Amino acid sequence: MPSSNRNTIYLTPEEDARLRKNFKDRIQTRRELSGQPREPSDLKTLRSQVIYADLMSDMQPQSGGQDAIVAYAVGDPYPPCVDAVEDLEPMGLGELRMETHHRERVLIVKRVTPVVRLKVCSWTVVQDESGDAERLEVVLHKEDHGKDILESGEMFRVLEPYFTVGEQGEPTLRVDHPSDLVVVHTDRAMAKTAERCKEEGNAALKQQNLLLAHAKYTSGLEIVQDSGTTKEDITFDLYRNRAHVNLRIHRLDEAKTDALASLTNLPYQKHIELDSKAYFRAGTAAYQLGEYQEAKRCFQEQKRLNPANKDATARIRKTEQRIHEEETGSYNFKKLKASLLLSSRREIAADAACFTRNVFIKASPGRGRGLFAKSNIEAGELIMCEKSFCVVWENEQQALTSMTYDFRDDRIRVFPAGLCRAVVRRLLDNPSQVGRAMDLYGDYRGPDVEQQRLKNKREAVIDVFQVHDIVARNAFGPEPGTSSAGLWMLASYINHSCLPNSEKEYIGDLMVLRATRPIAAGEEITHAYDLSSDYDARMETLMRTWGFRCDCKFCVAEKKDSAAVRKRRRDLEREASALVEKGETGRLAVVKAKRLAREIEGTFDEERYSGLPRMALMRIQKWIVEAGKK
Ligand SMILES: C[S@@+](CC[C@H](N)C(=O)[O-])C[C@H]1O[C@@H](n2cnc3c(N)ncnc32)[C@H](O)[C@@H]1O
Question: How far apart are CA 496 and CA 549, in angstroms?
Answer without folding.
Answer: 10
